[in-house]
Amino acid sequence: MVSKHDERLLMRFYEALNGGQFEAAMDLCNQEVEVYQPPEVVAAMPPRGHRDVSRYLRQFFASWHMYEPEPEGFVESGDKVVALVHLRARGLGSRFDIEEEIADIFEVDRGKISKLRLYVHRDTALPENGND
């Protein structure tokens, strides 16, 4: 079961992201926060630390005309928390809206986000299907 503290932490993280407040989002992360990549991504060094992760998040959100993740619930999966997200988005240069159910994956350590991975298919992220 996901703790109420972790739920509140992640809700504040989404509120900051949706408000374009990337520094406020970083305040909810530890100093060595890392964006973890799927195992098949081996060429790139994952963003690590407030500066690099903030830059990554800014670039990620800037690659969309609209990106509005709304968490619907949280599920514990080992040492990770899976956020079940309803996403409304539109890619840059696109005229088509996207509306889908996705997941984001977090690790929380001592009350701060230590790792995150955005935009994951739910069937990959949910515990019964095994996640990375």
Structural features, described:
- With about 130 residues, this protein is an alpha+beta fold.
- A hairpin with a 2-residue loop joins strand 4 (about 100-110) and strand 5 (about 110-120).
- The chain is about 30% helix and about 40% strand.
- It starts with a helix and ends in a 7-residue tail after the last helix.
- It has a 5-stranded mixed β-sheet.
- It has helices at about 5-20, 20-25, 50-60, 120-125; strands at about 30-35, 65-75, 80-90, 100-110, 110-120.
- The chain is globular, with a radius of gyration of 14 Å.
In order across it, which strands form the biggest sheet? 1-5-4-3-2
Distance linking N and C termini: 19 Å
SSE sequence, one letter per element: HHEHEEEEH
Shape: globular
What would you report as the Rg, rounded to the nearest angstrom? 14 Å
For the residues shown, what is the average pLDDT?
A: 91
Features:
single chain, 132 residues, alpha+beta, 5-stranded mixed sheet, 5 strands, 42% strand, globular
Topology:
Elements: H1 4-18, H2 22-27, E1 29-35, H3 49-62, E2 64-77, E3 80-91, E4 98-109, E5 112-121, H4 122-125
Care to give the gist of this entry?
With 132 residues, the protein is an alpha+beta fold. It has helices spanning 4-18, 22-27, 49-62, 122-125, and strands at 29-35, 64-77, 80-91, 98-109, 112-121.
